[in-house]
Amino acid sequence: ARHGVGIRPAYHFLPAKNWQNDPNGPMYHNGVYHLFYQYNPLGATWGAGNLSWGHSISRDLVNWAALDTALDPTAPFDNNGCWSGSATILPGSIPALMYTGRIDAGKEVQVQNVAFPKNPADPLLREWVKPAYNPVIPLPADVPGDNFRDPTTAWVGRDGLWRIAVAAKVGGPNGIASTLIYRSKDFRHWKRNALPLYTSRAAGMVECPDLFPVAEPGVEEGRLGYASGPASGAVRHVLKLSVMNTTQDYYAVGRYDDVVDTFVPEVDAERNADDCRTWRRFDYGHVYASKSFFDSSKNRRVLWAWANESDSQDNDIARGWSGVQTVPRKVWLDEDGKQVRQWPIEEIETLRSKRVVGLLGAQVNAGGVNKIIGVGAQADVEAIFEIPSLEEAETFQPNWLLDPQKLCEENGASVPGRVGPFGLLVMASSNMQEHTAIFFRVFRHNQKYKVLMCTDLTRSTGRDNMYKPSYGGFVDIDIEQQGRTISLRTLIDHSVVESFGGGGRTCITARVYPEHAENKNSHVFVFNNGTGLVKVSKLEAWRLAMASVNVVHGHFSLK
Ligand code: DQQ
Fold first, then answer.
1. 3-state secondary structure 48-79
2. Residue nearest to atom 7 of ligand 1 (CA)
3. From atom 10 of ligand 1, which residue's Cα is the shortest distance away?
């Protein structure tokens, strides 16, 4: 069994020990950030019936103190698990948690419950109470007991009523994946709308819906506030759904109608509005069950997502922990109005210690590899690549459009090309036997160019029988308009490699388990395996300090 000292992340969020999955109820309240999460206090595996809400607090979204679990499966309305949900700050600054209670009633029954702080004056909100009147939303007759869950943050509609969305399969075991809307005057009595927010027949079951407003270009994000509601022309919405049978999160930008509470996705021609599995993804790598919140202290929307392990369960148990959260990411609408952009919250930069600048203006020729000295396994690397000539780019095949991952699988980092593959090799052993490649390829497409981004894990570890895919997504930019440049930022954190391509338009998170990481240093390289020349017009790299993540319990300075 592997003890994995070398792969435990140093600044990604994880509990001191045991299993975590979905982020739950993120919020900013009275100067404190809260993150709750699906947590199994009994060990490093999932355990449906044991799930509690872990609870941590922070001043900066980087350093976290652990508190006692906020919700445990102890009530008749949640005795088989406190499953995912969200936080809403009610008038008077009272936070409410809404979550799914899983009940063992001979057969499984899922219901929606509320919980409130035991003492709203406690600045840390340590203890939570579940009113005896729960569940506030029982299982509807047309929904199977195991398919009704994951309430969103509530928002207020034009009629002054609260609304939440809940994922459900409607119409029996082969029903339709639906996002139902419930409305309430008092946060206690909820009534279902006749129309769902959105349905996707092809998707099977969706989970963890997230609906949030995004400002049109030029409009200040802060105007949108905490809740979703306003129907002014300056607002569009993003709907994200987590699709169970692909274990992926998909989102679309679209129009939310705040009179009838429906969402109409606005998607490109190659995608299908009715099949959310063709939508864009926040992350083309290994994340699921993402959830955002509005951070009123900095007028920004912040997204969390769960990146689970892909090592064996035996190794998870030996290490005593499993599952991390991505770094919190700021999310906003791109100028093109079609996609969101994501960027690590600026507070991550407080961890930057030793700064390394190298390769400025350097050229990387075909087959070239340049080492970035002194960054290692805990690093933040920002690069801008410039391609002097796109003339030689290979021709793009239209049937590749919907399967960038396949394109990356067939054309890994070691497959030479014309414009690309070029990018970074990270978590690389000294002899380069082990490495994880993050790279771009540029293709000619309809008189323009198409940029592919990949994270190739095939050489990430020398261990056999490991999950070593090549992840891929297109980067939706006009590379000529950008002066034939493309940017890449990669956060390296031992077993987490989290990359932001094209200014955060395409993100790929990967989990890697290199053997060398147990007792040897890891390195970072720039590489080019295309025949065309690539210039590194900017390269900055920092070692990142270790954050204080849940290593202290209950102690938290209010200064
Ligand atoms: N995880 C939770 C569910 C949710 C699923 C249970 C998504 O509420 O649907 O741990 O990962």
1. HHHCEEEEEEECCCCCEEEEEEEECCCCCCCC
2. 289
3. 83
Is residue 283 within 8 Å of residue 249, measured between CB atoms?
yes
- Are 268 and 190 found together in one domain? yes
Spacing, Cα 174 to ligand 1 middle (Å): 20
**Residue 540: which CATH number?**
2.60.120.560
ipTM above 0.85, yes or no: yes
Mutate to test the pocket of ligand 1, among 19, 42, 149 (most ligand atoms within 8 A of CB): 149
Q: Which residues line ligand 1 (CB under 6 A)?
A: 21-22, 38, 51, 83-84, 100, 149-150, 207-208, 242, 288-289
Look-up of token digits 């692909």: 246
> Which residue bears the tokens 């395996």?
529
**Burial of 36 by CB count in 10 Å (0-12 exposed, 13-18 middle, 19+ buried)?**
buried
Helical (H) or strand (E) element with 534: strand 534-544
Q: What is the rounded CA–CA span in Å between residue 52 and residue 43? A: 12
Same domain for 160 and 76? Answer: yes
How many angstroms separate the CA atoms of 540 and 356, rounded?
A: 6
Rounded CA-CA distance 475/339 in Å is 10
Residue 111 lies in a domain: yes
Domain of residue 524, residue span: 352-544
pLDDT digits (tens, 9 = 90+) for 136-168: 999 999 999 999 999 999 999 889 999 999 999
Q: Per residue in 525-542, pLDDT tens?
A: 999 999 999 999 999 999
Q: Say whether 403 is catalytic.
A: no
